[in-house]
Amino acid sequence: MSVHIKSHGSLSAYICPSPDYWLATYDFTELAEHALRCVVLAAQVSAEMWRRNGLSLVSQVYYYQDVKCRDEMYDKDIVMLQIAASKMDPNHFLMLVLLRFELFDYFNGSCSSKDQDELTQWNRLTEEMLYLLIVIIGERYVPGISHLTKEDVTMREVIHLLCIEPMAHSSLVKALPENESHETGLETVITKVAIFKKPGVSGHGLYEVKKEHLVEFNPFFYHYSRSQHSKAEESQKKRRAQEGNDKALRPPVPPAFCPAFSHIVQLLCCDIMVHILRNVLQRAAEDLPTHWTEAMIQRALHLIGQALLEEKSQLENVTAEEVTFDFSLKARLMGAERGKSVFLLLSKIKTLPSLEAQKDMIKWVLQMFEVVKCLRENSNPTVSMSMETAKPEESAQDKEKAERKRKAEAAKLHRQKIMAQMSAMQKNFIESNKMLYENMPESGTQGETVASTGDHATEQRELCIAVGPHRGSTPADREVLTCILCQEEQEVMAQAPAMGLAACVQRSTVLTQCRGKIPSSRADGPGTSYPLFMPPDLNVGTHTGSCGHVMHATCWQKYYEAVQNTTRNRLHAELIIDLENGEYLCPLCKSLCNTVVPLIPLEPLTFDYENAAIIGEHLTLPRWIQILSARIKGLQSIAQDNDRNTEGSSSNGSTGLFGEGQPDFRSILSYGVQESRKFSDSITEMLVVCATTVHRVGLKTAPNELCPRVSIMAWNTCAFTIQAIENILEQEGKPLFGSLQNRQLAGMKAIVQFSATQGLKSSQAVIQRHFTDMLGVLLPVMSRKNTPSLLEVDLFHLLVGLVLSIPSLYQEETVDLQPSAVSSAYNHLHILHLVTMAHVLQILLSSADVPAAGDGQETEEERAAAELYSAVSQHTGRLLPDVSGSSLVERVKTGIAPFLRCAALFFNCLTGVPPPEELFSISVDSQEQMEALCSYLALPSNVFQLFHDHRETVSPLLQRWCGSPVVTKALKGKIQTVRYPRKRNRLIELPEDYSTLLNQASHFKCPKSTDDERKHPTLCLFCGAMLCSQSSCCLSQLEREDVGACTAHAATCGAGVGMFLRIRECEIVLMASRTRGSTYPAPYLDDYGETDPHLGRGNPLHLCPERYRKLNQLWQQHCILEEIARSLEVVNVMFAFEWQML
């Protein structure tokens, strides 16, 4: 069985241009026979009448109407049927159609059945027959059938494709037939019928049909598939509803037939056509549900509309007496005596509830009857039509306006009611708490921050200090969250069951200043290497990010166990999540996670300013250093720790440095202590789980909750995460506060509070030792032999470690203590001052290349900078070049800004004190932002003032800091140092034209290859290295396994994470480990806003800055692992790709 007879298709192509010449020798019934049988076969397959023949026949029918074959099959058959219809008697032709569809007896009323399947088949065949009649009469866009060109045909195809939905250029090309030259003709017509919408950061450019061409839409376009017909109909109804129009999809006004084919329109007004329409409408009017369908009525209405439009067109061109087309008369008269004329039946079915969707179309058809009637009676049809059409539209608009007005009035009354209730509640509260309001000015003695007098702005400014004796109070905010698994709400409390944020811990080189250098985490002792001291080049850090979704600890444990049980049986599950490393997908957003960060509530605090002022008179920086020294020495004596003596420690030297009169061992406790915070058992357990994960991932080691480095890694991930967030905000030009996504803000706060509670489970002696080792960087007299120099440490990591570990000094043997709020304020203040001064020195020592500025009037700040620089130069043996004070000030302000921004984020999350308003805006200039940062951190806006205020304390420190051998080597150029501010990393710059990359790849030759084969050149977007991927010549060993060049490169360049551009395939490859990766669209688009994977279309490609910026954000925000997991979760992986060989 075949639906394709080549000679038959060729015959229709020959006859179409001049049918009168050819048909003189042919029997038109025979001409129509094969074409009609093919169309009927397709209709029967659609009606599921050939199910026993299997998929082979379904496939034949599919390709019979598919874009690849329809030009020579389906379209030629339609043309042949139009040729036959133009020469045959209309009634004879329709009889032939009814016979071939086996519906003659059905419409004649001589057969009936109660078999549901048979009735369904008859209904489907009736739908297909009516559809065929619509096509034969209405599809005139064929050269020779009407006076049109091939360009007009292509335009109509494009219009109908775009009426389904906006489409990309490549989708349009695939949906259009090709000519002999494999061209579609799209380029010549697309700008005439469509508007191009440029793509955003995702998706592709789309063409949308112009509004003036929407009138050409035909819902029964013969090249639509069944699904396309449904989509187009729904899309156009939705559009008309949005425009406030009815949902009637009227048949378009077709072009006129050529004279040879003009007889086809007589099909619409012949007796059998009217009989068919009457029969279909009568079944609906009699409400016989098994004998009709809505699709049949829709097609019948379309045919009636075609007939009325044809009659209207003829009446407008000639007089009524000359018009032989009389469909409207037959539709009114035939069957009128029994009330079964087409017109009367339309009036009846108009009110059927089952035809509510066709009500607008029925109204339009009845209006067209009136228009045609007026034209025949020589009255004004346009006036009557406008009046008829205006009434329903106006009534609908009036109803809509009235409904909107009613809703607006209801909303207004509701708002007024709520405001009245709030006002009444406020008055009642004031009345019931009158004494409280009267006594409020006197409450300052209790440490309240509200002053009885003074300016409101000054008051707000005083509150916006996070460090020191003037710090603001921590608000007592209740935080009630909902678990995404059990949907139960719970307040975050220290003694409540644990709640946590789903989070992902990963190693990162986003901030590195020395790409490709991964530090060793294995050394003789925990205090002599990374991770205790983060190198200033930040070559690898541990980042903890969260999707922001909250779960109960118990709910998470149940979910995680269920994931482990179900995932083990899934095909290639290891490509998505690594169960051995504790990975899982967030239940809600499917982000890749490997831990849960417990939520620790901020402790409400009302600061005692009077007590702070009294303590401040005694607890100066020198005195604070002496107290710390005595406390550390005493704790070491109690613990009988002789490590410092065996390593040549000189802690006793602190007496000579800061004068006589060392304080007592326990004098640190006299400045204020309080009982340590207590947490529920579940929170304590989750703290251990999270800390162990951070330690395991950050150091790539086995889980060990007793390792002394666990607490260090918690502090490090806190510091690195804050630095990464500050880097994102700065690169995107966003303000420091108020612009973070909720998930980033929640994750950062949770990480800071989690890191601050590491003293709960860790050994206090271990944390005290970490604090002593870190303090040795700032106070050289307390340092060990292997303590790094000031130039070898990232001071923000040091700041975080010192601030979070100093509470361990307050521990006693018999009682758990922690510093009071006032003691903590002074601890934070003195640590921040010491670290800030050390960072200023870092900047000065690394800025030897600063050019001298011109002469001018020196400010006080510039004189202080010059004085400090002179002292530093003297301590370094005059190795520093002469630099003006103005250059120094500018260099220090620029270099210290990232540190201060990170410190502000850290102390905001630690204390909860709100920052000043200037830090919420980017419109404030840099000087005002610097002043706001310094004010928030209790620093002088002139940071050089710190050295003047603490001259006696800092002078010996400066001498020892500058006297380090590392500093001398750096100034002599023997070792490389980090410049401040650090360079903000971005993806490499790519050429605008993709052909430049292709040329670059064509000249690439693998250095390890002996042949001339070009392999697969792949570009690392982190560093710009060109690699030879998927080739045996570049295999290397990584942890005793053979890996490809990209995998080996990602291990050193991105700590296992990679982003590569495969140049010949024009696609991005994202890598997260040796076993996981995914492809991602390249940031190169053609002129139509589309990517070209594997360069299949061959259009010129140009770089899209927005998409490349999105790729950069994907990397900077540490979302590569998340993107890989999501893409692998969507794609059903049947065959695992060996990513390690890439």
Automatic annotation (TrEMBL):
Keyword Manganese: no
Chain positions covered by the region annotation Disordered: 229-248, 383-404, 641-661
Biochemical pathway: Protein modification; protein ubiquitination
Domain E3 ubiquitin-protein ligase UBR-like C-terminal, first and last residues per copy: 692-1117
Catalytic activity: S-ubiquitinyl-[E2 ubiquitin-conjugating enzyme]-L-cysteine + [acceptor protein]-L-lysine = [E2 ubiquitin-conjugating enzyme]-L-cysteine + N(6)-ubiquitinyl-[acceptor protein]-L-lysine
A Gene Ontology term for the protein's cellular component: ubiquitin ligase complex
Name of the top EC class for this enzyme: transferase
Keywords annotated in UniProt: Metal-binding, Transferase, Ubl conjugation pathway, Zinc, Zinc-finger
UniProt keyword Ion transport, yes or no: no
GO term, biological process aspect, one: ubiquitin-dependent protein catabolic process via the N-end rule pathway
InterPro entries named in the record: E3_ligase_UBR-like_C, UBR1-like, UBR1-like_WH, WH_DNA-bd_sf
GO molecular function terms noted in the UniProt entry: ubiquitin protein ligase activity; zinc ion binding
Taxonomic superkingdom: Eukaryota
Species of provenance: Oreochromis aureus
Biased composition (Basic and acidic residues): 230-248, 390-404
Purpose: Ubiquitin ligase protein which is a component of the N-end rule pathway. Recognizes and binds to proteins bearing specific N-terminal residues that are destabilizing according to the N-end rule, leading to their ubiquitination and subsequent degradation.
EC code: 2.3.2.27
PANTHER family hit by this protein: E3 UBIQUITIN-PROTEIN LIGASE UBR1, UBIQUITIN LIGASE E3 ALPHA-RELATED
Family: Belongs to the E3 ubiquitin-protein ligase UBR1-like family.
Domain E3 ubiquitin-protein ligase UBR1-like winged-helix: 154-249
Name this polypeptide is given: E3 ubiquitin-protein ligase
